[in-house]
Amino acid sequence: MRIYRRFLHATPWYLAKYYWWAYLFRPTVWFFDHQWIINAILFGQYKKLMRKTLALLKDEDLSLPLQLTSVYGCLSPTLAERAAPNSLHLTDVATVQLEHTLRKIPADKRLYCTRMNAEHLGYADACFSCVIVFFLLHELPVDARERVLREAIRVLKPGGKLLVTEYGSTPNRHLLYRFGFTRWVLGKVEPFLPGFWQEDLTKILQDYALDQGHTLLVEHEEDVFNGFYRVVSYRLSE
Ligand SMILES: C[S@@+](CC[C@H](N)C(=O)[O-])C[C@H]1O[C@@H](n2cnc3c(N)ncnc32)[C@H](O)[C@@H]1O
Fold first, then answer.
1. 53 CB less than 6 Å from ligand 1?
2. How far is the CA of 232 from the centre of ligand 1 (A)?
3. pLDDT tens digits, one per residue of 116-139
4. CA of 117 to the centre of ligand 1 (A)
5. Closest residue (by CA) to atom 16 of ligand 1?
6. What φ, ψ does residue 6 adopt, rounded to 5°?
7. What is the pLDDT of residues 31-71, one digit of tens each?
């Protein structure tokens, strides 16, 4: 029996099959959630990516922020800090991830955790003032990615901000991409990344917003690490 099948219970197949070792297996969850490890995985860019993500939340309405899925490192505690005295909402499909994040939140800050598949959120329409998606999209197969993005738009209030921190689109200029071996390794470890690289994220999001009767404007887009990563914020029309 393949190991990943043990993790299939109430878990999307792609998460169990390709990422059980990263997000579902308790000992490795503990292992990966060290700042220097997650920083190494992101080629030393974690702090910079987090700083740029948080900068885009400056002066933003944080009355009801949603972090769409857990992340390793100190992003969630920092977001909870920023949102205080309001609560940060966080949803993830993996209980072990939610438990792990809860332990990182200072006792005087508020975090509401829910366990949901981001493809089918149980939240009402237009309920969050901003939605933050940090390195989730490239880990999803294309159909799951579509559902997650449609849900992210659906739960966002008109006038709200959608913040995406991700791999850049086809980073032709970057050595890690140009060098066939590293591109091959990345594609092995992150099997949906090659597809994600080719997608026009903004166009896709704008199409999904239009389907829901909104326009979605790029408010800020910034390359990080010579375009290997990006931080983009979008504003949903009123
Ligand atoms: C945000 S992503 C990657 C984060 C990034 N590698 C980091 O830790 O900085 C990883 C999280 O997404 C969650 N996840 C993946 N697919 C999901 C889905 N369909 N619904 C909810 N959570 C999901 C996983 O359980 C995991 O906690």
1. no
2. 18
3. 999 999 999 999 999 999 999 999
4. 10
5. 15
6. -65, -20
7. 999 989 999 999 999 999 999 999 999 989 999 999 999 99
